[in-house]
């Protein structure tokens, strides 16, 4: 099927099965199909939650026979679309991915690939075995900001990279929402924080330095969001007469009910009326006091990395920042780059010369335009039908090293910061890390 017959360059419309119609499924991948119907059409949905399933079905005008409760039903025995987009929870990635590849689908998979090293390696192998695309949603590579930084590095103007410092400022409200109260608050049920939230950052460091990471050490802990740190008078829920709710920056009432927009409240309820939001705070998990939740993932972590040439990198993840942002400093032998992603600010400092402001064109969409950039490039690959053995900018093979870096960082953290060799970790699981 091709869109806009009257246009000069006809674009083949790609059909998709959406497995998982939660936040990413509906608000990123589903939204892209609605915004660019000539490029992408959702023709089937698998989602166990009935309310989400019906909302997504209505948004894409699907008939009952196109809507399923489980991925097993829609991926039973034959292809019904060109691609499968998998946006389920972390531990639910492996089985539908392997089945989709076996059926001959190209697959776009939410990050992280899996909290299991063996499953990550198996999925990368399966994409090659079946000669299908398996792209991972490392969306930062597709942003104008990081693409421009990569371009400047490759120009040679800063010489050879000696050291990189990258900070991910999670934002105090994002930390409370996703990793204290929300779906990713327990590592045994989802993934460790360094893998779930920061595999983006491991991927960017791997991509920018463009070498094998050889060794990693890491420290981090759950410092603040614990019951012993609850202020005197704190209730179990923000809506239950908490004595400190009005002063607490983590108040669910302030974050969801009194906010100027529904940016965060849309993730706690599908009923965005004042009554619906109030009920979600009173009865749902997002109304709990942040000091009385069942969370165990870290709220801050640092990672130090050594690369093949001797270049080093340091990464800091913190839930204690006023905004959600990333900042980077890249130090080369001939110059330096400093960047602030959310402001699209990049400054180049060639040694001995004047500083240069690098122009970055801002794009719409989440992750600094990376969400739409990822979809655009993946669909181009699918249309070209030139899978090159499953390779691509964020193919499973390309993403494998960054996942191994995250696994090594968590292993080091749990061992008190002792150094972990990437090659040794890889060999334990019968795989040689690709460069």
UniProtKB/TrEMBL annotation:
Which segments constitute the Gfo/Idh/MocA-like oxidoreductase C-terminal domain?
150-413
Query: Which part of the chain is the Gfo/Idh/MocA-like oxidoreductase N-terminal domain?
Result: 16-138
Which InterPro entries does UniProt cross-reference here? Gfo/Idh/MocA-like_OxRdtase_C, Gfo/Idh/MocA-like_OxRdtase_N, Gfo/Idh/MocA_Oxidoreductases, NAD(P)-bd_dom_sf
- GO MF annotations in UniProt: nucleotide binding
Gene3D superfamilies from the UniProt entry: Dihydrodipicolinate Reductase, domain 2, NAD(P)-binding Rossmann-like Domain
Q: Please state which protein family the record places this protein in.
A: Belongs to the Gfo/Idh/MocA family.
* Stated name of the protein: Oxidoreductase
> Could you read off the lineage of the organism from its UniProt record?
Bacteria, Bacillati, Bacillota, Bacilli, Bacillales
């Amino acid at each position: 099927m091709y869109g806009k017959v009257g246009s000069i360059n006809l674009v083949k419309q790609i059909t998709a099965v959406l497995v998982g119609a939660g936040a990413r499924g509906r608000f990123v991948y589903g939204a892209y199909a609605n915004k660019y119907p000539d490029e992408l059409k959702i023709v089937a949905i698998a989602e166990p939650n009935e309310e989400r399933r019906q909302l997504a079905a209505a948004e894409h005008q699907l008939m009952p026979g196109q809507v399923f409760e489980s991925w097993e039903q829609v991926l039973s025995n034959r292809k019904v679309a060109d691609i499968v987009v998998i946006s389920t929870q972390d531990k639910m990635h492996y089985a539908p991915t392997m089945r989709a590849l076996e059926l001959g689908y190209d697959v776009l998979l939410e990050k992280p690939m899996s909290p299991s090293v063996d499953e990550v390696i198996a999925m990368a192998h399966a994409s090659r075995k079946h000669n299908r695309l398996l792209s991972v949603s490392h969306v930062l590579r597709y942003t104008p900001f990081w693409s421009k930084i990569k371009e400047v590095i490759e120009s040679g103007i800063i010489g050879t990279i000696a050291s990189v410092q990258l900070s991910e400022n999670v934002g105090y409200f994002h930390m409370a929402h996703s990793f204290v109260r929300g779906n990713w608050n327990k590592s045994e049920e989802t993934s460790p924080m360094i893998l779930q939230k920061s595999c983006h950052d491991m991927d960017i460091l791997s991509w920018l330095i463009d070498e094998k990471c050889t060794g990693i050490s890491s420290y981090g802990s759950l410092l603040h969001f614990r019951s012993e740190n609850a202020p005197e008078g704190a209730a179990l829920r923000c809506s239950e007469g908490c004595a400190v709710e009005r002063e607490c920056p983590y108040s669910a009432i302030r974050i969801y009910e009194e906010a100027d927009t529904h940016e965060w409240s849309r993730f706690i309820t599908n009923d965005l009326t004042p009554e619906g939001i109030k009920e979600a705070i009173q009865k749902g998990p997002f109304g709990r006091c942040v000091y009385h939740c069942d969370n165990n993932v870290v709220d801050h972590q640092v990672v130090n990395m050594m690369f093949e040439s001797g270049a080093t990198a340091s990464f800091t993840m913190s839930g204690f920042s006023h905004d959600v942002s990333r900042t980077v400093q890249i130090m080369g032998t001939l110059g330096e780059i400093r960047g602030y992603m959310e402001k699209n600010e990049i400054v180049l400092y060639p040694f001995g010369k004047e500083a240069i402001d690098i122009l970055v064109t801002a794009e719409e969409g989440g992750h600094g335009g990376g969400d739409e950039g990822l979809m655009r490039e993946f669909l181009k690959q699918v249309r070209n039908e030139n899978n090159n053995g499953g390779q691509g900018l964020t193919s499973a093979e390309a993403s494998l090293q960054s996942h191994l870096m995250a696994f090594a960082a968590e292993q080091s953290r749990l061992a008190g910061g002792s150094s972990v060799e990437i090659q040794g970790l890889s060999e334990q699981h019968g795989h040689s890390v690709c460069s």
